[in-house]
Amino acid sequence: MDQPFRPHDLLWLRPGAAWPELPTWAGEILAQGLPVVVRRAPRAGGMIPAGVRGDTRSRRAAILLEPGRVARRAAPEDLRALVPGDPRRADLPAFRALALMQGRLPPGAAWGPTGSVGFELATGWPAVTGSSDLDLVLRCPEPVSREAARAWAEACSGLPARCDLQLDTGAGGLSLAEWAAGRAEVLLKTDEGPRLVGDPWSVPVP
Fold first, then answer.
1. Tell me: the pLDDT tens digits for 117-138?
2. 8-state DSSP, 124
3. Is residue 129 situated within a structural domain?
């Protein structure tokens, strides 16, 4: 795996790893072979910060991984053309919203679902509910104008589920809605913590 592990990537781990520091429920999730998700946090010693996703919002557990423990990876952009394994779930609002987003973002752009939608598409595990949002990430290594951001925000409106799109600059992630709103400063989520910045693309990529 020659590409760096990025926030929102899903990672499947090699079997046999023990996690005595995790709560019982998290160990059971990993024992089922479900992936963990890369999170934004410091990467001391080359370790990968990741999180275990449980069956409720309150069940989230943080871990640090050695890269050698990773067997397989799926990035959000690998998932956007997938459909639920159970066709009956395709009518859930978040999945219908994802289908409608196809073609609404710039041609050739690298984007895809994160959160519960991405997790279910990657695993078949029923993470999406009738009230789930559609969380998306759009890779934007080059600056995005406010005008373009407003057009993309409009593309995210009127969907069956609320769409929360995050722009990934490479150095961090920011809300499309905040950037489109024209605020003087926006919150950039980086591996070292959140920062208020005027120009998110002025922050160097680590």
1. 999 999 999 999 999 999 999 9
2. -
3. yes
